[in-house]
Task: inverse folding
C-alpha cells in the first residue's frame, strides 16, 4: 500500500516536472525563433530579384542598432543585456537579409550606443561584436553613415574629427577611394553629416558640392543620420539646390515615415534654393508607417523630393515598432519601399520573468507542503508510539 502511494506520488511529481520543462522549451522556441518566423510571414510582399540584375538595386536599410556598451549598463547584469540585445539584432538582421537578398546594405548611423565616449580598447570589442552580428557577404556592398552616438554632435557633445577618423578607420566601404560617395550600379550614395543645430554654411556647402561633382550616376541618394525635412525650409532648400538628390534616406527618430515635398521640385527645375513665392513654407506630405504597406514612387517623374525615415532595429530605443527598411530601385527611377517589422522584445522578456517567478513560487509551496506533510507524519507517528 505504501509502495503504491509512493509510486503514484512519484508519477504525479514527474508529470508536473515534465510539464514545466515542456512549457520552458515551448517558451524559448516561440520567443527566440517562431516569433521571427511569424513576423516574416506577414512582411510586405516584395518582388524577387530580377534576372537582369543591372536593372534594379535592392537596399536593406539598417537604422540605429546602437550596440549596447559597458559604461551605461549594470556591472552585474550588463553581460546579459549585451548578449540579449546582440542576439535580437542578429536574428532580425539574418531574417531581413535572407528575405530581401540585397545588393547594398545601408547603415544609417548610431551603430554603437557608446561610440562617441568609448575608450579605444572597448571600441575594438564593439567593432568585433558588430561584425559578428551584421555579417554581410563580400559580394554585397556596405554604406556606413555615422551618427551622433558614433562621433558626437548632439546635446552637449560636439562632433569631433578624431572620432570621425576612428569611425572611418573601422567602417569603410571596400573598393571605394572616396569616403563620401559610394557607387553601386546606377546609383550614387552621398554620405552626408548634417546634424541638428548645424547650418548649411560655406564649408558644408562646398563639401556637398564636391560630392555632387564626384557623382555621375543617374540616381543620387543622399544618406544622412538625422532627418532632413524636419528642419526649417531654408536649410533643406539650399541642400536640395546643391546636392540635387533623387531622394533622401535618414534615421535618428527611431520611427518609420515617408516625407514628400512636391514643391521642392521647383528647386530641382530652377537649380536655385528659392521656394515658390506663394508659399515660403512648403507643404510636406508626411505618412507615418506602422503596417506592411509597399510605397511606390517615380523618382524621375518631376513630382518633388521624398525622404525615407527608417525605424530603429533595436528594442532598446523606447519605441514599440522595430524593423528594417527595404527599398528596391529601378534603373528608370521607380522606387518601392516597405518596412520589415520585427517582434517586440519586452513582452517576450516579461514572459520569461513571469515563468521564472511562477516556477519559483510553485517550488517554494511544494517544499512547504512536503515539509509540513513530513513533519505532521512524524508527530503522528510519535503520538502512536
Result:
Amino acid at each position: 500500500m505504501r509502495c503504491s502511494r509512493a509510486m503514484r506520488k512519484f508519477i504525479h511529481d514527474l508529470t508536473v516536472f515534465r510539464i514545466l520543462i515542456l512549457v520552458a522549451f515551448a517558451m524559448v522556441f516561440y520567443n527566440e525563433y517562431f516569433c521571427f518566423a511569424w513576423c516574416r510571414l506577414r512582411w510586405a510582399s516584395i518582388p524577387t530579384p530580377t534576372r537582369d540584375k543591372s536593372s534594379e538595386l535592392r537596399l536593406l536599410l539598417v537604422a540605429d542598432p546602437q550596440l549596447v556598451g559597458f559604461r551605461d549598463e549594470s556591472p552585474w547584469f550588463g553581460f546579459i543585456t549585451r548578449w540579449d540585445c546582440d542576439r535580437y539584432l542578429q536574428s532580425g538582421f539574418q531574417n531581413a537579409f535572407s528575405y530581401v537578398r540585397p545588393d547594398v546594405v545601408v547603415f544609417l548611423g548610431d551603430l554603437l550606443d557608446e561610440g562617441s565616449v568609448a575608450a579605444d580598447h572597448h571600441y575594438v570589442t564593439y567593432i568585433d561584436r558588430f561584425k559578428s552580428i551584421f555579417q554581410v557577404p563580400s559580394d554585397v556592398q556596405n554604406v556606413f553613415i555615422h551618427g551622433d552616438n558614433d562621433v558626437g554632435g548632439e546635446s552637449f557633445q560636439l562632433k569631433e574629427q578624431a572620432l570621425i577618423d576612428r569611425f572611418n578607420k573601422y567602417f569603410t566601404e571596400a573598393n571605394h577611394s572616396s569616403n563620401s560617395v559610394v557607387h553601386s550600379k546606377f546609383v550614387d550614395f552621398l554620405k552626408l553629416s548634417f546634424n541638428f543645430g548645424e547650418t548649411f554654411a560655406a564649408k558644408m556647402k562646398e563639401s556637398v558640392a564636391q560630392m555632387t561633382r564626384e557623382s555621375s550616376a543617374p540616381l543620387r541618394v543622399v544618406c544622412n543620420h538625422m532627418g532632413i525635412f524636419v528642419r526649417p525650409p531654408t536649410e533643406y532648400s539650399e541642400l536640395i539646390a546643391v546636392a540635387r538628390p533623387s531622394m533622401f534616406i535618414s534615421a535618428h527618430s527611431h520611427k518609420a515615415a515617408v516625407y514628400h515635398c512636391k514643391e521642392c521640385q521647383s528647386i530641382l527645375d530652377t537649380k536655385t534654393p528659392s521656394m515658390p513665392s506663394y508659399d515660403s513654407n512648403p507643404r510636406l506630405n508626411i505618412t507615418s508607417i506602422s503596417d506592411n504597406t509597399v510605397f511606390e514612387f517615380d523618382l524621375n517623374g518631376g513630382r518633388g523630393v521624398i525622404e525615407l525615415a527608417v525605424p530603429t532595429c533595436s528594442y532598446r530605443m523606447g519605441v514599440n515598432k522595430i524593423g528594417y527598411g527595404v527599398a528596391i530601385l529601378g534603373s528608370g527611377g521607380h522606387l518601392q519601399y516597405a518596412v520589415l517589422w520585427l517582434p517586440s522584445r519586452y513582452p517576450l522578456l516579461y514572459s520569461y520573468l513571469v515563468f521564472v517567478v511562477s516556477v519559483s513560487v510553485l517550488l517554494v509551496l511544494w517544499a512547504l507542503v512536503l515539509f509540513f506533510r513530513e513533519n505532521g507524519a512524524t508527530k503522528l507517528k510519535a503520538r502512536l508510539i
Q: What stands out?
A: Residues 68 and 82 are 6 Å apart (CA to CA). The chain has nine helices and 13 strands.
